[in-house]
Design brief:
The structure is a homodimer. By secondary structure, chain A is α/β, with parallel strands linked by helices. The first copy, chain A, is built from 13 helices and 17 strands. Chain A has three domains: about 1-170, Molybdenum Cofactor Biosythetic Enzyme, Chain A; about 175-250, 2-Layer Sandwich (Alpha-Beta Plaits), CATH 3.30.70.2860; about 260-415, Maf protein (Alpha-Beta Complex). Chain A has helices at about 20-30, 45-60, 75-85, 95-105, 155-170, 190-200, 230-245, 260-270, 285-290, 305-315, 320-325, 330-345, 395-415; strands at about 1-10, 35-40, 60-65, 90, 120, 125, 135-140, 145-150, 175-185, 205-215, 215-225, 250, 275, 300-305, 350-360, 375-380, 385-390.
Chain lengths: ~425, ~425
Amino acid sequence: MQAEIIAVGSELLTPTRVDTNSLFLTRKLGERGILLARKSVVGDDRQILTNEIRRAREASDVVILTGGLGPTLDDLTRDAASDATGRPLVRHEWIVRDIEERFRRFNRPMAKVNERQAYVLEGAEILYNPRGTAPGQWLEDEQGILILLPGPPRELKPLFAETCMRMLDRHVSQQRFFTQCLRVAGIGESDVEQRIGKIYSGDPSVTTTILSAPGDIQIHLRAGAPTEEAARAIAEALGAKIRAELGRAVYSLNGAPLDETVAGLLRGRGIKVGVAESCTGGLLAAKLTAVPGSSEYFAGGFVSYSIAAKRHWLGVDEAVLDTRGAVSTEAAEAMAIKARERTVEALGEPAIGVSVTGYAGPGGGTEQDPVGTVFFGIADEEGSAIRRRQLGLGRNRVRALAVQIALELLRRRILGIS
Amino acid sequence: MQAEIIAVGSELLTPTRVDTNSLFLTRKLGERGILLARKSVVGDDRQILTNEIRRAREASDVVILTGGLGPTLDDLTRDAASDATGRPLVRHEWIVRDIEERFRRFNRPMAKVNERQAYVLEGAEILYNPRGTAPGQWLEDEQGILILLPGPPRELKPLFAETCMRMLDRHVSQQRFFTQCLRVAGIGESDVEQRIGKIYSGDPSVTTTILSAPGDIQIHLRAGAPTEEAARAIAEALGAKIRAELGRAVYSLNGAPLDETVAGLLRGRGIKVGVAESCTGGLLAAKLTAVPGSSEYFAGGFVSYSIAAKRHWLGVDEAVLDTRGAVSTEAAEAMAIKARERTVEALGEPAIGVSVTGYAGPGGGTEQDPVGTVFFGIADEEGSAIRRRQLGLGRNRVRALAVQIALELLRRRILGIS
């Protein structure tokens, strides 16, 4: 079975808006083995939308329309679906009453135009939408399945996950699918490819996809079988072989990102952490506090952006800053040690200190340490370790990559990986 | 004239990747008054892609394909464009030599498969691409214009902005377009709409679009005229009226975001700032340092996430934390005052202190101050000001919105807006 998604709305054809509902729908369809053949974005134009629906239904078994179900006159999905299928729209009085009731509950009068939302394609099933006024619609005919969903993600997502997935199960084969996601840090994409290429290409029962982002590689292993448990077993058998090859560079077996993984480690082992960061300007602390409950392990951080802050707030030795500079092995080490000391003082407990200092650019840098050079420090009871990395160009990219590397170094230090 | 964009690549049909080239292209096309009628994403499937190109060319004057021009066998854009137009692909020896030369420069051998990139649609103009191996292609025939562009943004963007825009000028009317972008903070979308609705709807020569994001509203004013200067004058005349109505809630007249605006103010007035943040966990400092050259005005920040950090690092009075709690008017005030004191001590110069403390959730909160409650403090030589806001739910959303509000309060304090 294959599917197409059509996102409706002129605002999605502007330079500032992007359709993201299709990403969610693609993932859910994938869980039932339905592949996305194509997706498109169409403005609020009845004729163009009608043609688009016709063409998509000719090519694919399942066509999903998102958006354009609201009350206003430029919400044209219902009308275009009616034109494309040749089915009239039928007014359902109970939907009108339901919309009226919703308005009453919020103490607002219901404008007449809202009744547009009570019109449903003849023969379509109504997908009740408790989170909004426009219900979804589900039509099955000789051409396949046509699904109309409201555009707001908070309405669309539960409606699809709860109602549509159950209805899809009437059609899809008994095949179930499972995707395991391994995540890897600290080694490059070509290294990963070279080390595991033979392993995964030797297993045709699993579809392997490698996705690479700065400082982070994802290995998706997708298998199908009559039950989800069986599909899972097939994917995880290959996952175990890959894990055996890559060792502890694999930081996650279930797709959890690095910040969550590190948070879990810190929480599980009762370790406290404090940071001192310069070029990342608060992003490392922000990442460590992105996870709910982070106060269990994160005491706080110093964004010691200026020399004065490094000197006065952290207490880094003036001589280090004067002779070696604020971006140096020595400064990174002193910052990590001082971050640890300040955290231990504040909490009265052991802690790890992590530091980042570098040239994010575009200005700064020296001949020896050009823009993109970043130093990392980690200090704990056993001592300290420093790393220097050259992260290329682009201020935002360097900052984001530096945060990933700092987290990965922290993970390795906790696990005793050298 | 109308255009369509087709993004090519199976990776763009997965749950994790989204096409963003089309946003850039939409903006550039808009500068020449060319509207986007539709956009789509198609996988690496020659037949589907061929049909898509045929259909798009029937409907629109300009069709742009992005991606699928690389050397590998699943790069099928050239072949599909050949099928769709009935034009053979012609091998250009100078492109082969150019690719060989590129490889030589990087000291790598050129695999034979790279020669695929030297095939060009018969009759098409070659768009030389100095940043990659695959050139773009530009075909004009009785059906209109067909443009093939490489997928990597760093190749596509300059190629389109420099070469294609010039070539488009041969076709578009002499009409030129200008869009002014006003940005507004501190008032809600419906307030903005109510206050300026009559102003912009009374001016049919300008197309007005209002885009709303948490804590930030953009008003786009688009006008067309025979020259860019004239278009600009029309848009800016309306912009001035809107500015007069909304006053200093308009923080930017040229689309610059709030962090840049605040950075410009701080830099222009030689003001130094230090922060103390709790629930935003470093994001406020990260925003203040996102702009190059931020060391001119940003001394540093305390991510005083724990009570201990507020107490020991900032020096907030224990009594305040014990009796009023870490999320309170009193704590926000003390944090702002201490952030200022620490910054003044470190720099030996005057400074402003900014603080944020709140419940980002999902845990925490009290009956009086539930999850989503955030307190903001600002302290300078003249005293301090505190604000309390209820920011709703969603940890990430609350954190991001709190950063916007803190920046806006800082902007208003600097400008003396109450």
